Protein 1
Amino acid sequence: MTYLKGGSFLTHSTNPEDIFISEEWNEEQRMIADMVREFCIKNIQEPMLKMGREFDVHHPEDKAEIVRLLEEAGKLGLCGVAIEEQYGGMNLDFNTGLLFSEVIALGLSFATTIGAQTSIGSLPIVYYGTDAQKAKYLPGIATGELKAAYCLTEPTAGSDASAGKTKATLSPDGENYLLNGQKIWITNGGFADVFIVFAKIEDDEKLSAFIVEKVFGGISLGAEEKKMGIKGSSTVQVFFDNCSVPKENLLSERGAGFKIALNILNTGRIKLGAGTIGGCKFCISKTMEYAVERKQFGKPIVEFGAIKHKFGEMIARTFAIEAALYRTGRNIDLKRAEFVENGMLESEAKLNAIREFAVECSILKIKGSEAACFVTDEGIQIFGGMGYASETGIETGYRDARITKIYEGTNEINRMLSVGELTKRAIQTKEIDLMTAGKKIPFYLFKQLLPFKSNGELAAERRIVQNLKYCFLLISGTAGRKLGKKLVDEQEIVLNFSDILAEAYIGESVLLKYEKLRTKKDVDTEKLAIQKKIVQLYLYEALDIARKASNDAIAAYASGGERRRMRYLVGLLLKPYDVNPKALRRTITDYCAKNGGYCF
Ligand SMILES: Cc1cc2nc3c(=O)[nH]c(=O)nc-3n(C[C@H](O)[C@H](O)[C@H](O)COP(=O)(O)OP(=O)(O)OC[C@H]3O[C@@H](n4cnc5c(N)ncnc54)[C@H](O)[C@@H]3O)c2cc1C
């Protein structure tokens, strides 16, 4: 398998054999997924059904149970999925780690709890810890004996993470840092033993990061926040009042905190994307079960076109984003292996590999969270009044899904990051050659004027993917030239770019997945035909999104003749796609209804 550099999907094509697809999980990976699924059903879903309500940390007995479940998960090795074996972890490769994140979503809000433990709460030590720090903390985190939290956000520092006021002052003997400050929205904060805390040393402008134990003293907690969703996840304020931290608990070096925070969030973003896909699949299956049973006007509601429309969309988005998810995960693993081969330390290699795919990680965070909100909303709609009732659990999923657009960097910030990172690689580091790609645009546009010669089964779909990429290059290139540095103040236009970029990546991924699937031996032809329809439906919708984003951007930066010319060119690139979306949605839904829910 070969792979492209991060972000360069825009300027290069990928062969289908070079992407990983979820049908290729091996026996061991499937066993891990089964174990996690069983854990979630037995320990979270079934008890919730019995209680007739969701877990809620405001009930002391629930909070104690969540702590116990974290320890139970630890016994199965689930708290150590990303921790090296020598410290008691499973050290799963990155893509299997994403599979874990997908399936643990069946644990509903517990996924946030264990997510903080296995990701933001422990990865700073995994990636940046010294051997001594790793040996001291990671074994306890891997077994769940030590509960971990990540303290970045402050009242004045949310998206602007480096604006925090928490201070670390070196003690007169130079042996300890005294931490003072306030952190808010801290997941697992209500029971954590170990906190990764970001603070500025003395009058530094840059953040540093510390490993802080609860037993160090000087730490007090606010009450559990009253939240819209993920009620089983502990979220509190954490106050540091002369908390004395040994100087050897500084992570990495002084001033490295912001870099650590961002790199950890990159990892968290794609993992969150994986979780949202798990949530979407679960919601689709649960809703399908209901829609097949529930009768109105003498027939199951799944037989109504209006309901089929919803399912078609829910399924297509989930399938397409999943294709991009595991494509990216495997690329991260391949990049890590290449770094290690070239002599890089394992932890550094992991980190650099994830950073390489920062653009893709942001796209997956955005698209996954938006799919989860869409799917759970439509799920409620299909359940009708019962969707609004707590007992069916769909409203829990809807409320739980909403946070995914906010944490791990809001979707607005991630949209800007995806474009910003790409631009940086094109202009500053010159890793991506957008200029050469841009120069091909006139010739490419000219080709669009010629009659389209379809050569082969997927010619139209390949052309759409290619045109989405060219559309991004055209719009971002012309707007960039016109607005120059002023573009950063034109966020709406940057958001338009990011929408086109995301559709190009997800659209290409779902097409590549289908192309790979059809080469598999013993392929289920009926299923394959449905998968093709999913690709078509996704691309149909992607074109619509890109068309609107392009026209919005053009209206914002061009006027008169230039505006008309740009609209014409976008029209050439994003021509109507000759499929019948109604028929596609119906067939996709019928297939899933016949097969008991989401079945890909
Ligand atoms: C349930 C929950 C759990 C959390 N867990 C943790 C945790 O464990 N650890 C932790 O450190 N934090 C945690 N957070 C905090 C979370 O990461 C922040 O809420 C998030 O980063 C957004 O920051 P904010 O809430 O201050 O919003 P703000 O930054 O104030 O943003 C408000 C709005 O303004 C927009 N905005 C902000 N800046 C810009 C800009 N430059 N351009 C355009 N739009 C902008 C945002 O997109 C958003 O729509 C958690 C939050 C919640 C709700």
Protein 2
Amino acid sequence: MKLIPVEMLRPGMIIARNVYNAKYTMIAKGTSLNSEYIKFIQSSGYINIYIWDGNYMDVDVTNTIDDQLFEAAVTAVANLDLEAIQELAVKIVDIIEDEKNINVDFRDSKSINDYNSHHSVCVAIYSVIIGRAMGVPTKGLYKLCEAGLCIDLGKQYISNDIINKPGRLTKEEFHIMKEHARMSFDILNENDEVSSLVKKCVLCHHENVDGTGYPLGIEGDEQHIFIRILHVVDAYNAMISQRPYKKPFTPNNAFEYLIGGKNFLFDSKVVDAMISVLMAYPMGIDVELSDGSKGVVVGGSGNALRPVVKIENIEEPVNMRTDEKYQDVNIVKSGALLEDYSDGKVERLNEISKKDIRTKQRIMIIDDTPMSMAQTKTAIGDAYEYICFENGLQCIDFLSKNSEDVPDLLIMDAVMPTIDGVTVAKKIRKNGFSKLPIVFLSSTRDREIVMACREINKVDYILKPANAIYLKERVDCILGNLRLNL
Ligand SMILES: [Fe+2]
């Protein structure tokens, strides 16, 4: 069995797993493809499909959660059927609890059109696996699974024109999207059979551990561990999915983002548990390694990014986590990387977003170290214009003379020699720029400084040296050019 991008499908290939939409099996496994089927699959927005391949007969990708159960959960969520959701949560947990070798990957089954109905089912399943790895008892897992299935129930009351809008959302649209957490909570709140823990998890699944999330802005210790698990998984599944307004993150980049956001957006223990139990690269997918060799993923290793790979011309599969010869070798490409196969489709989606940005947004950077300034600009890229200052006084002076010409975002170091970042931010706020988003980029973890930054209403605090992927995606999110946390 092999997972290939839909652009590589050819007549005569045999489908190895059912292809289905939100409710029905559209093409059963074992079907020999003809041009009509291929056209259907390609036009329905699927990214990858499993086919039989004689060279990889022993790659078994039977999902721990079978199609029937997955589809039943999708239907229960779509119908807002809380009784069925509770029953299915128990079934899903019991299956995962009984299974030693868990294999869950639904990337081949998700078409771009079915994202909303599949997303919460994927979140529920991944959350249970992580919860189990973190020692959550079975009864707790039932609640965690139920909460995962319910996180986005409220989205059914939001227009698809907003949910699937290919470009930037307006402020009002952002507000409506963020309301979905409360709307999901309200649906559950009417039902006495749903526990208060499940209701709280659903309400808070977009809370960041540093208190910058929504809708309540609660912090790490105030968040039940289930909330922290759901938040990480929700972000992960959103990142690896293709949406009308964004291409999927590569598995590597999705994990880089989670790692970069540890202790600020995401709970670090949850991220670590996730890396140890999930597979970033699905079984049966082609990979290219940094030493130039090519192979196919044939198993997990306990590290999502370093799977077991059957490499061409090497008999025994290589465990990239434990094999000493491969410690300096990484996966540089995989079949899921759409850049290779997208046929321009994703680029077209991104073009729509770009057109929507009429003029380049401007970012002001204050950093006393030229090297660090250059690294920040390089990481964020040339989609933005920059105004750069070496100290905060220049920034205060600029804003006082250009009050009509305020940048869209300010990024600055928290600790600087002439005037520190917190003082600069306080002066800026005092001078009337209360809405200018401020991101602190600093190498200090000093709690007092972090807290002081928080009090002046910063939008983020990123540790230096910044993870380039995390920094870029965070800036894109803050400026409304990327939707990840909705
Ligand atoms: Fe959500």
